[in-house]
Model the fold of this input.
Amino acid sequence: MSVIFSTVWTRILLPAMFSARAFKLFPQVYCNIEKPDFDDLSWLQGVAQEVVLVLLITFILARLLRLGTKRLVQLSHAQELISGRRALQLRTLAGVLNSMGIFVIVFMASMWILPAFCMDIKPLLASAGVVGLAIGFGAQTLVKDMLNGFFILVENQYNVGDVIQVAGVGGTVEDMTLRRTVLRDADGTVHVVPNSEIKIVSNKTRDWARVLLHVAAAYDENSERVIQLLREVADEVRNDPNYAGMIVAEPEVPGIERVVGA
Done:
């Protein structure tokens, strides 16, 4: 047993790992698909070289993908992310990216390795192409929804709790996924908007918002007195401990906007 292992290690594994040919960027064809010579150790050595190279590249790509998604998870725990729901969305997004990336990496590695074992992958690729084409036509709207939802999450266009205007409807964001956004308007109506329908996002609560109040007064009231009273009330609200932290600028009273009646 030791003699056999020593022979295999010396003649196959060591050349596969340390031969300069193992570090070429493109795979070589080491077998004749019609009639491979499995008794030829040089063929086996070539296959081992290719497999080691592909596995090494696969490991590196998977590691880089893992580091990227791990960074995204760390970002979700950062202190600047006030919304716990936003952090959950980022962690979900990291999981989706990691799963999709691993699938793509493993698929490409398989397509690279199988020909080395004299397996014809043309029928497999043709079948995968037909299935992918059928799914693409049938689920193109779903793909658009998820792609747009991906960029909404990555760009942080809005979060749960924001008041936004999208696709002709507005309201408070109650839920958001890669596929759709759920809004509730002032009347209590719930709107489910597919993300593919979102072209322009108007976020009314990002960082700060301005509130415009129109106060009606009797026609015969002294306009200067009314303006002074409004300024006093605005100052009281500005200095109220319950609201001081929510107001980022001094209230303004521009004056009379219009006169109605006579």
Q: What stands out?
A: The longest strand covers residues 169-176.
